[in-house]
Specification:
Layout: H1 2-25, H2 29-55, H3 58-102
Helix pairs in contact: 1-2, 2-3
Length: 103
């Protein structure tokens, strides 16, 4: 039981560090807001999965893990693409302003 406790504690510390790092690296207010909403959603889903691991029997847990794995991968890709799109839009605005100043 001690190993599982340390593993959960390590995952919790990593999650807090990753959330803090993501918010600090956000460049615009729009991106920061999106990052905060995505982080809150990820923490909520993480707590639900932890509760499922602790309270579901083994057979139900195995049936749950495959669709959850695909869902997590899909949501992660969607969030990464949305954040990239926000950054590209901001960069496009900056480039347009720079071109206006040159002319």
């Amino acid at each position: 039981m001690k190993f599982e406790t340390y593993l959960i504690l390590a995952l919790l510390i990593f999650g807090i560090w990753k959330t803090n790092r993501s918010v600090r690296r956000s460049q615009t207010m729009q991106e920061r807001s999106f990052t905060m909403r995505a982080s809150i959603f990820a923490w909520f889903v993480g707590f639900l999965l932890l509760a499922a691991v602790l309270f579901l029997p083994f057979r139900a847990l195995m049936l749950l893990l495959l669709p959850v794995g695909f869902g997590v991968l899909s949501i992660t890709k969607f969030l990464r693409d949305a954040r990239t799109r926000l950054r590209q839009e901001q960069q496009g605005r900056v480039d347009l302003e720079r071109m206006k100043r040159v002319n």
